[in-house]
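Recap from last week: sequence in, structure out.
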Amino acid sequence: MNSKLTRRRFIKGVIFSGAAATTGAGVYLANAQSGAGAAERLITLNINGRSRPVDVMPSETLAYTLRYKLDLTGTKIGCNRGECGACTVLIDGVPNYACSVLTHNVKDKAVVSIEGVKSADGTLHAVQQAFIDENSPQCGFCTPGQVMSAVALLNSNPRPSREEVRAGLSGNLCRCGAYEHYINGVLRASGQIA
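Predicted structure tokens:
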């Protein structure tokens, strides 16, 4: 038998691999590995101060896990490549794009999503209230990421300058261009404007 790659064999291979992927055979075979090197699937995450057991694929992002496994849909997936900031969460107090972090990498860390920012009694965080007072959200898609970045900024610098706020929010893209409203909201939350 001739093992030379032909156009026909290539197309058959593509069709076969597509069929295997849609039937789940590829996922089964990929996850059938065991022993040293295989990633555990059932892990426990510390999300918003609660331990949450979840079944996680080795290549699953934190944004996907939060939205589709834990039903925490406040974390938005915008670009899904670490450019827009809509999926920003705090990991051990540091803002991170959840679409660029593998869930397995945060299993020993404290993750706070937008749902974990308000008080237990439902009172909004000072940043959330200030954004409302300043009419910061327009379409609202970027707002969860803006809030998380602002909370992290104020936790590390309670009275930032306008330039420091601008730098602190610079990783968050606003499709509506409401940047000044968000900056004013952070300044209001810090008590610098009334």
